[in-house]
Amino acid sequence: MLKRRNLFNWFGSNLNCVTYVNSIHSVVCAISGGVDSAVSAYLLKKKGFQVKGVFMTNWDSSDENTDCSLDKDRQDAQFVCDHLGIPFFEKNFVKEYWNYVFLPLIKSYEQGATPNPDILCNRFVKFNLLTRAVLKSKNQCANDDVQASSNLAADAIATGHYCQNSFGNYLQYRKDNIEARLLRSVDRVKDQTFWLSTISHKELPYCMFPVGDLLKTQVKQIAQDIGLSRIYSRRESMGMCFIGKRRFSEFIDNYLEPKPGVYKDLETDQVLEEHTGVHHFTLGQRIPIKRFNGPYYVSKMDCHNQIIYLVRDPAHPSLFMRKCWCGPAVWINSEPFSSINSRNIQFQWQNKWRPVNCILKPFSDISLASAYLRKDMKRCLSSSDNATLASVIDASIEDNREVGPCLSIELEAPMRCIAPGQWCAFYDNDICLGGAMICGSISLWEEGQNTSYHEWNHSDYELTYG
């Protein structure tokens, strides 16, 4: 680890060693108001690029009575640009975010799923619409139906994501006729390739990731050294800002009509209590049942009949899965699925968990992928394959993406609470191959196991330093 005193000097002496490459002179850096994007903009400027900062507005906070941090984020983004001496711009994607991120989110919750808006935002807004709005000429990007803004026009775009580009994090190794690869960052704990697992290789040749080869501690140190203590001390953003300080159930009820149902004991089928709608819950959630001593845990949800099945044991086999199926996979690069050695692929379904080895099998539709895994089930609470879940995504703004097939996934070891609507990412070691929406899973209990599963330890899978 570089010492604090030497860290800034090291950057100061080495940042200019790579000059303009491949005719890249101007770069638009997405500025969120956080430390990672702020340091990214600083590093770009130190390298000699003409840097512009852009703040993305994805939500109209006036529509909701929230304590959304949007205004504070905008102020901090403006402060960063002023401090670094770069122009500040704001780009409004409220309508697009609503159509391509928020509506699919609501439709997923309506089906009892647990969706991820960040993956959709990166796929459709940040690394699609924003990138296309920034690039100077139509020929720079395969999708040319979005005209570039004259103010935002640039040769490349940069973000503060912890990931790397095979063309170099400043595109210094970019070549024609070769597809760029999305690679894991040096900081494995902060690695964010999971969130970018459905972007396209068509945008990657224009995407810089200045902090991809740094540790978070180094990024924070740079922020302090260059006088951005105000940004350094900010808490990292978590969750969906438009919810504000309200409970999620209070927020979601503004968009979905509550459909009352019942809690049932998974093993006895006894009705335990009533609830106000499956869209308030997710697998593994702790539920206090007033009539009984001790908590229960959500192990299965039947959104068609509004039944939530509960278990008392946090190690109950119904909470652990080694088989799941997903909708059409979205591949970053253009090689067909048949060229990928499925036995060398790693599966990651939470950004905070270590990946596990898996075996993938392709199917033409979700029902076939589901049926393949269900054939040996000993218990079955629902015959639904959740085929309609993948259809909530509107991909109409994408052009010639590598999408499909549907997949069955068998994991090397069971994982806890793999829920429909969540996303998984696929890796070949450090290369992020793509991602897919999980539409269903089969628990160890459904496979016939009756005893508690104690082999799963949180510490075995959580990404940590050291």
From TrEMBL:
Residues 407-438 form the tRNA-specific 2-thiouridylase MnmA-like C-terminal domain. The keyword tRNA processing applies. It catalyses: 5-taurinomethyluridine(34) in tRNA + S-sulfanyl-L-cysteinyl-[protein] + AH2 + ATP = 5-taurinomethyl-2-thiouridine(34) in tRNA + L-cysteinyl-[protein] + A + AMP + diphosphate + H(+). Its EC number is 2.8.1.14. Keywords: ATP-binding, Disulfide bond, Nucleotide-binding, RNA-binding, Transferase, tRNA processing, tRNA-binding. GO terms for biological process: tRNA wobble position uridine thiolation. The keyword Isomerase does not apply. It is found in: Mitochondrion. Catalyzes the 2-thiolation of uridine at the wobble position (U34) of mitochondrial tRNA(Lys), tRNA(Glu) and tRNA(Gln). Required for the formation of 5-taurinomethyl-2-thiouridine (tm5s2U) of mitochondrial tRNA(Lys), tRNA(Glu), and tRNA(Gln) at the wobble position. ATP is required to activate the C2 atom of the wobble base. NCBIfam families: trmU (TIGR00420). This is tRNA-5-taurinomethyluridine 2-sulfurtransferase.
